Amino acid sequence: RLQGQIVFQNYKMKALRRSIDDGEAQIAVMQNKLRKAIHDVEEAEERSAMQETQLVRGGRGGNSTTRITTRRVYSSSIGPSTTIRRSSVTQRTPAPAPAE
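^ that's the sequence the OP posted. Answer follows.
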């Protein structure tokens, strides 16, 4: 009878180990997806920053005002914190020249 309980507990322990292994595999897949998403966001931020720099340096000409706001988003220990940059450009037309 004791031997039967030992066998039953061993089967149960093996099943739990399989469940844990499956869960760890799913977690690894999700972590990889998260890392890829973080990487994609960082690349997009870099491209956005370069385009903002070009815009501020005179990409459009004329009078323009650029306002850049930054918000920091903190993630879990899996990846670095992410900075989200937003900018808005307001195009102003020059004042008309006084009539002579």
